Amino acid sequence: MPQQTTEAGRTPAAAPPAAGYRRLFSLPGTRAFTSGNLLARLPMGMFSVSAVVMIAGSRGSYALAGAVTATGLGATAVAGPWIARRVDRHGQARVAVPATLVAVLGSLALLLCVRYGAPDWTLFAAYAATAATPNTGGLSRARWAHLLRDDPDALHTANSFEQAADELCFMLGPVLASFLTGTFFPEAGTLAGAVLLLTGMLLFTAQRATEPPPLARSKAPSPLRTPGIPPLLACFTATGAVFGSMEVVTIAYADAQGHRAAAGAVLALQAAGSCAAGLVYGAVKPAGLGLTRCLAAMAVLMTLPWLSATLAGSLPVLAGSLLVAGMATAPTMVTAMTLVQGRTPPDRLNEGMSLVVTGLLAGVAGGSALGGWAAEHLSPAAAFLVPAAAACLALLIDSAARGARSLRRTP
């Protein structure tokens, strides 16, 4: 256990180095802030699906729905690092709560604009306001980094849990959104997501004992100028392209097979594989498994969906290959995120992790576009080469960065 100063000023003795999830959640306050954060994080997998269903159902245009959600992604990429800098400087509760209120108001405004037939431009403006949503996963990781700053093994386990939580939320979020919009009314998914986000954030920020202390205006360089960070962000962008292209291509392939409704369940298997691998990776932490080996494993495993789609031509076989391919995702993300935490100046940690999200979103957007083009102009089966190529690109970026570091160290 890391050395922590309690409110009484005493420093508890360090625990044995054996790590485990039970040990993580034995720390005071960790169960409470994790519960609130998971509640706030679940809507991240709901909002896009809910918005697309709501807008397309009302306006009859998937193109408009896609453009609105793309605008939200772009606004998030711009606003995310700015909000994170304010969090680092002023504290999580002081910044995250008002930012969440702005985002919730944006979601409610979108709902009302769709419900009452407001002009199309109001949809873009309302959804852009949701970019104020704080990086909920980053806020939780920052707490773990603060609590476990002297215990890298426990921090590895915590990061693995957080990645598994991300996968779980992105697996359950679309399912919940689809259920709500289909069972009740088209706006139900957006409304429920807004309520969950606000409730979860209020519960999370109420746990002040585990909140990292705010820091004065940082004199450290931007994470973008911190050695080692730019190549990692480039790797995250390429990894985001894996996610974005795989989603679009899988939907296109399922549609071509006449089973478009099953695409969500097939994609959920990829997230399930990643979630399971993340939990195991956090508990075991295989020796010597660095970022390069994780990226190499991802590059190899991401060829399995292409082989399944090309050789077998069966959706169940593809589903099995996605389950296996997803197992390389979480270890890669955990290892890369740990490197970001280690290389980012402590007083700019939230900003560094927000830049990771920006890189991922940029990759998701680019991968979605390229995957859609390949599925339309080549074939859905051949388009599975796009996520495989994106995984190879991430490996090449890491290899080039390692080579450059070796040259700088050579006298």
From TrEMBL:
What are the UniProt keywords, alphabetically?
Answer: Membrane, Transmembrane, Transmembrane helix
| Lineage top rank: taxon | Bacteria
Family annotation (Pfam families): MFS_1
Segments crossing the lipid bilayer: 38-56, 62-83, 95-118, 228-254, 260-282, 294-312, 318-340, 352-375, 381-401
List the Gene3D superfamilies hit by this protein, alphabetically: MFS general substrate transporter like domains
Q: Identify this protein by name.
A: MFS transporter
